[in-house]
Amino acid sequence: MKLDDVADDLEEILLTEDAIHERIAELSREIEKDYAGERLLLVGVLKGAVMVMADLARELKLPINMDWMAVSSYGSGTQSSGVVRILKDLDSDLTGRRVLIVEDIIDSGLTLSWLLANLQSRGAASVDILALLRKPDAAKVDVPVRYVGFDIPNKFVVGYGLDYAERYRNLRGVGVLAPHVYA
Ligand code: XMP
Ligand code: MG
């Protein structure tokens, strides 16, 4: 679905499909240099990272494996608490692997900092993070994100995997949700 198809639900268009694809291509060239000659394990965080994982994996000229994790942040309201529960664990053994966590967005950074520590404790050769989007709050927690697609304003965004109440994940671009949708 295109951003135009839900124009009334969006306050602003942040990223078009073309802009996202262009940036993923740029990041892929960096990743190809950084992991030349190695086999990378991409770990996607369900469900938001599905789109960025699919596009990144197909853009990369590297032998890769893909695996998936689903986690949920406990806590009341919309803020993540940093207490994370694994809903679906990896199928892969991480021993000696070069791992790249693929995330849709880093907001407070609490989820990713927990995930990073968790995967690092499994004997991987390296664990790095790619986040398509980063909000300014992320700077408050020290999460080393190696690859960032876009820094965005501190607004609730949907599309390209990101949802509001499980809607809008299938938008080809990213937009700011209009307040009337959740009011
Ligand atoms: P942290 O722990 O970094 O949480 O605060 C990141 C997770 O919060 C969700 N999130 C969003 N989801 N639009 C969304 O659809 C947003 O603007 C947004 N900001 C944060 C998301 O699940 C992410 O993995
Ligand atoms: Mg997510």
TrEMBL record:
Keyword Glycosyltransferase: yes
Known pathway: Purine metabolism; GMP biosynthesis via salvage pathway; GMP from guanine: step 1/1; Purine metabolism; IMP biosynthesis via salvage pathway; IMP from hypoxanthine: step 1/1
Keywords from the named record: Cytoplasm, Glycosyltransferase, Magnesium, Metal-binding, Nucleotide-binding, Purine salvage, Transferase
Phosphoribosyltransferase domain boundaries: 18-164
Taxonomy, superkingdom: Bacteria
Main location: cytoplasm
Catalytic activity: GMP + diphosphate = guanine + 5-phospho-alpha-D-ribose 1-diphosphate; IMP + diphosphate = hypoxanthine + 5-phospho-alpha-D-ribose 1-diphosphate
Pfam (any one): Pribosyltran
The enzyme's E.C. designation: 2.4.2.8
GO MF term set: glycosyltransferase activity
InterPro entries xrefs: HGPRT, Hxn_phspho_trans, PRTase-like, PRTase_dom
Enzyme class: transferase
Listed cofactors: Mg(2+)
Subcellular location(s) of the protein: Cytoplasm
Family to which this protein belongs: Belongs to the purine/pyrimidine phosphoribosyltransferase family.
PANTHER family hit by this protein: HYPOXANTHINE PHOSPHORIBOSYLTRANSFERASE (PTHR43340:SF1), HYPOXANTHINE-GUANINE PHOSPHORIBOSYLTRANSFERASE (PTHR43340)
NCBIfam families membership: HGPRTase (TIGR01203)
Protein name: Hypoxanthine phosphoribosyltransferase
Gene: hpt
